[in-house]
Amino acid sequence: MLELTPNTLTAMLLVLAMLVIASLSQWLLSSRLSADAHQELRQRINSWWIMVLVVFTALMIGRTASLIFFTILSFIALREFFSILPVRLTDRRLILALYLMIPVHYYWIATDWYGMFTIFIPVYLFLMIPFGLLLLGETKGFIRAVASYQWAVMTTVFAISHVAYLLMLPAENNPAGGGVGLVLYLVFLTQFNDVAQYIWGKTFGNRKIVPGISPNKTWEGFLGGIATTTLLGALLAPWLTPLLWWQGLFAGLLIGVAGFVGDLTVSAVKRDLRIKDTGRLIPGHGGILDRIDSLMYTAPLFFHFLRYTAY
């Protein structure tokens, strides 16, 4: 079982308290919102309850359960990515092989083999994908297929797996929060950054950043969200991580900017494919990729910032 410190337990209780407040708020606002708006808000909050309880349960049960949870998450995310890509029929055997590589990659995390973890996908799997496609003998769409499959595995498996590897970092280096505190810090700030940028944008946003990709993204939302996330990062850093408050400023800034880029990147993918959401798995939120788009960018950057700063 992963050791839960008083700080991490308090953080979990605060998140649950925020969800209780959100649930009460949507009930009180039911008479002021349209039926469709109220239903969407209720679906979003109910989905957050399910997602938070699943993550908290995995973290509380233990490291093995957490690794299994992230393995399944990567599998679902990769499957969703392939479901929206124009996949060639001849590539199905290679795609099956890529699914089988997911538990292999997470095995390196389970055994704390950092060297293999860092090169297995970016080096070995990147070389295997074009070779596997060559063996299938189909050259039409070859470059597009190679690039699409490589990027899909990088984002949904390699990038997300950095969240799981936070649990393997030495707990003695972070007596305040342990591995669980690091995960809570990263995930909470990443999701809070999305919410903060949305609120700042809706309240003060006028100047659009890239209207051709995401019409709702404004400079006011971007800067306001990053400022809020940076300050919160400094506040939470000594509480959940081994970082000092001023290092937390850099961590918060990193998460704020990277989260924005991740969100915008997946928006560009959806624009290219002419779809609104990447899936319908999470009511009110779309698909898994819609929910972890920011985390795909914040996780590896925060992990390496933390590892070379405090470990």
Question: What does the model show?
Answer:
By secondary structure, the protein is mostly helical. The chain has a domain at 64-168. Helices cover 76% and strands 0% of the residues. The protein is built from 11 helices and no strands. The longest helix is centred in the last third of the chain and has 29 residues, at 245-273. The radius of gyration is 20 Å and the shape is globular. The two termini are 22 Å apart.
Query: SSE string, helix = H, strand = E?
Result: HHHHHHHHHHH
- Please report the number of helical segments: 11
Helix content: over 70%
Uncertain runs: none
- How many strand segments? 0
Strand content is: under 5%
Biggest beta sheet attributes? none
Q: Name the average pLDDT.
A: 92
Q: Shape from CA axes?
A: globular
Measured distance between first and last alpha carbons:
22 Å
SSE-based structural type:
mainly alpha
Rg, Å, rounded: 20 Å
GO molecular function: phosphatidate cytidylyltransferase activity
Keywords: Membrane, Nucleotidyltransferase, Transferase, Transmembrane, Transmembrane helix
Pathway: Phospholipid metabolism; CDP-diacylglycerol biosynthesis; CDP-diacylglycerol from sn-glycerol 3-phosphate: step 3/3
Membrane topology: Multi-pass membrane protein
SSE arrangement:
Blueprint: H1 6-28, H2 35-61, H3 63-84, H4 92-110, H5 114-136, H6 142-165, H7 178-204, H8 219-240, H9 245-273, H10 288-292, H11 295-310
Quick structural gist:
The protein is mainly alpha-helical. The protein contains eleven helices and no strands.
